[in-house]
């Protein structure tokens, strides 16, 4: 699977986990040059507290377009150390 934004592959892995229609990529599969930590955090009642990344590709910024759970609940252990995307990031095979 590939995560693409602004015509660049920002993550790629054969090992994604799909939860609630979102592909979660292993953290080490992201192209770190495009990711900047964000101060945004949200809470999911069953997964835990999410942290976000802003993605920057060729001077264009996609604020909070990637999220991950630094600590997960027992129900969400499968997505620990994984990153997912939204806000126009295309996921394709």
UniProtKB/TrEMBL annotation:
InterPro entries: DUF427, DUF427_sf. Residues 1-87 form the DUF427 domain. This is DUF427 domain-containing protein. The lineage of its organism: Bacteria, Pseudomonadati, Bacteroidota, Flavobacteriia, Flavobacteriales.
């Amino acid at each position: 699977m590939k995560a693409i934004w602004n015509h660049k592959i920002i993550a790629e892995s054969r090992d994604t986990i799909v939860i609630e229609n979102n592909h979660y990529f292993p953290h080490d599969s992201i192209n770190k040059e495009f990711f900047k930590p964000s101060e945004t955090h949200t809470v999911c009642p069953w997964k835990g507290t999410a942290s976000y990344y802003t993605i920057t590709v060729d001077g264009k910024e996609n604020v909070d377009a990637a999220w991950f759970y630094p600590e997960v609940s027992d129900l969400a252990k499968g997505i620990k150390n994984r990153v997912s995307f939204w806000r126009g990031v295309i996921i394709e095979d």
